[in-house]
From TrEMBL:
Pfam families cross-referenced by the UniProt entry: eIF3_N, EIF3E_C, PCI
Function: Component of the eukaryotic translation initiation factor 3 (eIF-3) complex, which is involved in protein synthesis of a specialized repertoire of mRNAs and, together with other initiation factors, stimulates binding of mRNA and methionyl-tRNAi to the 40S ribosome. The eIF-3 complex specifically targets and initiates translation of a subset of mRNAs involved in cell proliferation.
GO cellular component, one term: eukaryotic 43S preinitiation complex
SUPFAM superfamilies xrefs: Winged helix' DNA-binding domain
Cellular localisation: Cytoplasm
CDD domains: eIF3E
Source organism of the structure: Carpinus fangiana
Subunit structure: Component of the eukaryotic translation initiation factor 3 (eIF-3) complex.
GO BP, sorted A to Z: formation of cytoplasmic translation initiation complex
Protein name (record): Eukaryotic translation initiation factor 3 subunit E
């Protein structure tokens, strides 16, 4: 499964310290050689302030008690920089720790941004909001997949228009995690049908066994293809989902409805008509043939145009909002 490892695509959107749990996971699962993982850790640590940790890994990798002089020099540099940063951040920290000063903040967000920006000059432009959302979604993976209700909360966050637009624009690999959340969520969310459309639209830019599995089942109705994709991700909870899909049909017909073959066939015909599916029954083979549900190219163009219009409107609104906040108070 190393070929589907998303670490190289996820890491650029994470702070370096958040990459270490991922490397630990890869090391435990033995997806890569230990020596390769340790060298990656040292390379990752070289540009951080975690010098002591880098020294420990260097000793473990090279089985030595001594470390290079450049690591020793780097440690002294880091300690000096930390002291300088503490002094630079002291005014803002003092402000936040002072109850009387905090009372200066108002319910008006624009006033707060302007006031704090004038005092401390540390607020990003709205042009960086898409990138900030991408970072937030990557960071939140550590929380959502370690929280009892995380599978529902990740859908609530990632499936919002502004976050889903950010995924489609710059981080389509996050579709894997949203797809997983939909699969393992006990309550079938109303947004699932719309999410399947997103997977279908983004197949040209990103696909893996999980997203392809959903496309096989819900778009192409290709259960043979779904079974092949299921074998590619046996360590994920997709096998149980596919089994449920097959068994739900047979259980409903055999146990719940208590129908014979002819009655079952008529029931399926009425179901197909009622759901407006493009399907037909092969009575000789005893199978239901379902045609893939490929959206019309003109409908896709209209959907993308609407989405682009919405994004443009939001961007203009944010720029105007920022411009108004930047004007001096009168």
């Amino acid at each position: 499964m190393a070929s589907y490892d998303l670490t190289p695509r996820i890491a650029p959107h994470l702070d370096r310290h958040l990459v270490f749990p991922i490397l630990e996971f890869l090391q435990e699962r033995r997806l890569h050689e230990d020596e390769q993982i340790l060298k990656s850790k040292i390379e990752l640590l070289n540009k951080t302030n975690m010098v002591d940790y880098a020294m420990d890994i260097h000793k473990s990798l090279y089985h030595a008690e001594e470390v290079p002089q450049d690591m020793v020099d780097r440690r002294a540099e880091v300690v000096g920089r930390l002291k300088a940063l503490e002094e630079a951040a002291a005014p803002l920290v003092t402000f936040l720790q002072n109850p009387n000063a905090v009372q200066e903040l108002r319910a008006d967000k624009q006033y707060n941004l302007q006031m704090l920006s004038e005092r401390y000059q540390n607020f990003a432009s709205p042009m960086n909001q898409v990138q900030n959302r991408i970072w937030l979604m990557h960071w939140s993976l550590f929380i959502f997949f370690n929280h009892d209700n995380g599978r529902t909360q990740i859908i609530d966050l990632f499936n919002q228009d502004k976050y889903l637009n950010a995924i489609q624009t710059s981080a389509p690999h996050l579709l894997r995690y949203l797809a997983t959340a939909f699969i393992v969520n006990k309550r079938r969310r109303p947004q699932f049908k719309e999410f399947i459309k997103v997977i279908q639209q983004e197949q040209h830019s990103y696909k893996d066994p999980i997203t392809e599995f959903l496309a096989c089942v819900y778009v192409n109705y290709d259960f043979d293809g779904a079974q092949k994709k299921m074998k590619e991700c046996e360590e994920v909870s997709l096998r149980s989902m596919l089994v449920k899909i097959f068994f739900s049909v047979y259980l409903v017909l055999a146990e719940k409805l208590n129908l014979n073959y002819e009655e079952a066939e008529r029931w399926i015909v009425n179901l197909i008509r009622g759901s407006k599916l493009d399907a037909k029954i092969d009575s000789h083979l005893g199978t239901v043939i379902m045609e893939p549900n490929h959206p019309n190219v003109y409908e896709q163009l209209i959907d993308h145009t609407k989405a682009l219009s919405g994004r443009t409107y939001k961007l203009v609104s944010q720029l105007l909002e920022h411009a108004q906040a930047a004007q001096p108070a009168r």
